[in-house]
Amino acid sequence: MRQVGIMFLSLMVWVGCGPAPQPEGAVEQGQPLIDVGAAEAESLPHPFSADEIRDEWIVGFQLKLRRVMQGTESVERWTVVSADSDAVEIESAALDGDGNVLGEASLARSTWVELRDHATFPAARAEREEATRDTELGRLDGWVYTVQEDDDGTVSEFFFAKDLPGAPVEMRTTRGEELMMELVQLERHRPDQP
What we know:
The chain contains two helices and nine strands; from the N terminus they run H-E-E-E-E-H-E-E-E-E-E. The protein is mainly beta. It has one domain (38-189): outer membrane lipoprotein receptor (LolB), chain A (Clam), CATH 2.50.20. The protein has a nine-stranded antiparallel beta sheet with strand order 4-3-2-1-9-8-7-6-5. The longest helix has 7 residues, at 50-56. The N and C termini lie far apart (46 Å).
């Protein structure tokens, strides 16, 4: 069975960084969100270029996200702690209900190209359409990538906002009526913006 990568910093260090436990088959850092085999090398357009992500994810950039996985809900904060023309280092920390860090934060380094490539979706099994959605970050215009797994009915949906380069604003993986995983951006902050 093909394994759907469970998220962006998965997009971005998307899925592979962070203290939350990863299920079997989760994506390692630097791997695309969806397994793109040799026979499916043709992919849909990426939502963002490596340069667009680099220009948005400056030192001090933060995301606060809610992750639901295997019936457990957690809140995480991702912070860009260093960046250069080639790569970024992102700190990921689990938060308690008051916003305090739980346990130890983890660091992950990725190139900008690796982050872009997390959003590689095989054209043979995926569709991309423009959409406007009400999200935790407000009403946003963007693209929805829907990926069908052909062997077990698993469907993954990724919503990327056009004006927010990087990780998907919302990501869900379902199998039938069962929610396998959900990742939702709750807050997003650049240090050069109010």
